[in-house]
Amino acid sequence: MKVLVCISSVPDTTTKINFTPDNKSFVTQGVQFIINPYDEIALTRALELTEKDGGTVTVINVGDATTEPVIRKALAVGATDAVRVNAGPRDAFFVARQIAGYASNQNFDLILCGRESIDYNGAQVPAMIAELLGIPSVSVCKKLEIAGKTAIAEREIEGGKEIVECPLPMVVSASEGMAEPRIPNMRGIMSARTKPLAVVEPVDTPKNIEVIIYDKPKPRSEVKLIAPDKVEELVDLLHTQARVI
Amino acid sequence: MSVLVFIEHAGGKIKKSSLEALTYGNDLAGLLGMPCIAVAGGKITNDALEESAAYGASKIIHLNNEKLHTFNVQAYTSALAAVAGEQNAKAIVMSASFSAKGMAPRLAVKLNAALADGVISLPDVSSGFKVRKGAFSGKAFADLSLSSDVKVLTLSPNSYKIVKKDGKASVEVNNYSPSDSDLKITVKEIIQATDKVSLPEAELVVSAGRGMKGPENWGMIEELANVLGAATACSKPVSDAGWRPHNEHVGQTGIAISPNLYIAVGISGAIQHLAGVSSSKTIVVINKDAEAPFFKAADYGIVGDAFEVIPKLTEAIKKFKAAH
Ligand SMILES: Cc1cc2nc3c(=O)[nH]c(=O)nc-3n(C[C@H](O)[C@H](O)[C@H](O)COP(=O)(O)OP(=O)(O)OC[C@H]3O[C@@H](n4cnc5c(N)ncnc54)[C@H](O)[C@@H]3O)c2cc1C
Ligand SMILES: Nc1ncnc2c1ncn2[C@@H]1O[C@H](COP(=O)(O)O)[C@@H](O)[C@H]1O
């Protein structure tokens, strides 16, 4: 089985978000970048599936050269090879076009993504790739089994789950539960240095969306503390002041 | 020209999150000077559908083909794209439900439309089309400018107030039949816990963390949630340890929620946790450690032992409910 895993390079989850004075871009200085946590889940599941049935796992990232440490980490975890599309990830459609463009003549059986990137939170790229390739997609998938050319996937729905069957090829976006992310070992880290990392140039893509400004939520006013033996006071405040009950 | 609102239903009724989308769609249609048209698929009665007129729809289109009785993302994308074409839709609005979030990007590609996912307020259409959404997992907002002719918007649950109006509109049946190439996915089974309030849509949420010590102590959390009519949630280590199911995990790497009330019990308030819950309107923190960082992000706090405070709080709310 030939699997493509799409990985996004995102700020570490502990990052305090700051923007440039014009509020147009995110300040990356001093920020540690990591593989998007959901993409780590996707990558791990891809490795488990190919270890079981044989096959290869290619990782792809749309990003400039600064994302290479993150790509190398994916190789260290166990990916076979990597591709970087040499362009800043302008928007979801742009990223999807690059990935679909690369995948269109490579006969991948399965394209795995994360359910969303924790920076942009679009949850858009995976289904866009699928639509561009004209293949099925399952979003927010919590379990994925492959038997031959068929996938059984469990996807989240409000208050429950849905189990679906789908012929390959398809795109799946991974959520928690699909796999436990792996940590690279020393051998993995060593071998990652020599694994192939191809750099390809982006294809032109029309632009119809732009971030005008970023903005941070207003801080909350000081917390009002209530004594532990005065819970009635809290109930009263929730009713009369916050008006939520 | 029109604004289309895709509405979902459960248990024979239009979902609350879809009523939010309808109210939003109607207000957007007002801004753009166009009618608002509701579109639903699957098995649902005309009476239930006609309810959508009370939230601004001037017409209701029912995709009634048998092949659309279960949600199939490709089939629904094609069906909606066809309706959007027939109705000359300039904007398509839907709640950011799991199904809709899986469909909206496909629809946007099909229609050459810009997609804004998880918008939280009406767009500014005074010059162009500017709309606000959450970014960086609740740590920031982004204002987007959409420049395509057609726009697709998904609305973040609980961010737009439902307003009921006097309205009457009739249901128009649409027999759109999806092609086989759009029906590759087959639904094998749907497992639904119908008695529970769904977390992303919940207005009230009671959430607990490692401070609860073990899964055996969740009874008091569930009881508090029951008394309030709230959904339950948890911190990541709690679901990682298997104390609670993964779909209750909120935060930067879990579900992001914005209920009216979020009660956090025995949760320290790590940055990753706050990211997913800080857009809650009111936050109550109960923690025995006065230094817990969560207090800095809270509106109301009780420094105390959850095992003593929660049963008391549950009783107090019972009394309040009985009196109101
Ligand atoms: C990549 C990454 C992603 C992450 N994503 C998330 C995420 O999405 N969501 C998330 O929640 N976490 C996430 N985390 C984990 C996060 O960093 C914290 O570890 C986690 O939120 C802590 O959970 P907690 O507050 O339940 O536990 P703890 O930090 O252990 O806090 C327990 C709290 O309970 C209090 N307590 C103890 N006993 C009592 C009592 N009897 N009564 C009242 N209070 C009591 C303590 O004072 C303490 O404040 C992530 C971490 C990483 C590295
Ligand atoms: N720049 C990128 N390069 C490769 N894959 C990406 C990129 N951005 C997003 N993805 C993939 O798409 C998923 C969803 O991202 P998003 O639509 O941005 O929320 C991520 O979890 C990745 O799997």
Provide the descriptors you would attach to this structure in a database record:
heterodimer; A: alpha/beta; Rossmann fold; 9-stranded mixed β-sheet; two-stranded antiparallel ribbon; B: alpha/beta; 2 domains; 7-stranded parallel β-sheet; 8 helices; 27% helix; binds adenosine monophosphate
How would you describe the shape of chain A? globular
What is the makeup of the main sheet of chain A? 9 strands, mixed
What is the CA–CA distance across the termini of chain A? 54 Å
What is the CATH domain class of chain A? Alpha Beta
Strand proportion of chain A, as a percent range, falls in 25-35%
The radius of gyration of chain A is 21 Å
Beta-strand segment tally of chain B: 17
Molecules bound to protein: flavin-adenine dinucleotide, adenosine monophosphate
What is the compact description of this entry?
The complex is a heterodimer of chains A (245) and B (324). By secondary structure, chain A is of the alpha/beta class. Chain A contains six helices and 13 strands.
